[in-house]
Design a protein that fits this description.
The protein has about 170 residues and is mostly helical. About 80% of the residues lie in helices and about 0% in strands. It has 8 helices and no strands. Helix 1 runs antiparallel to helix 2, helix 2 crosses helix 3 and helix 4 packs antiparallel against helix 5. The longest helix has 23 residues.
Amino acid sequence: MRLNRQEIETIYNEHSKRLFLASFKILGNSQEAEDVMQETVLNVCTSYNIPNINNLGAYLMRSCINKSLDIVRKRKTAQAFLSDMKIQVSEEGTTAEDSKRTDLIQMIIRLIAKLPQKYRQIVSLKLIEGYDYQEISEITAQKENSIRSKFMRGRQQLATLLKEEGIYEKI
């Protein structure tokens, strides 16, 4: 079953911002994130096997994250990824307050990127994207109890990294 134009537009309007933000957090590049977001929605909406509508948001998010991670894996090194993200994020700050906030967010994103892989995605989805444990469980295809445990451990490691950077007291 294929969707008509109005159904595709509805899906796009409901999910595009969250997909873009998730992809942008991973890629650090707004143009690439936009491409991934559009490709994700287009692939799902033009396929014959449309997922259950109750899980569509989680399915789209998982697909978008996987596509974004594939792009990151193709980059030569993790250092190049962080450098690209730093340049992209720092260009967005326009006032002194925006610049300070952008620098803090950039620092936190950099520290999240230092977490072990098993914690990185879960901490990012929970703290930055605002997903609850059940949604993260659907996105990552892991048990909810496992998600809770990994989030707690990842959050503790992030707090340790923030203390080492001298940021924890400022937040």
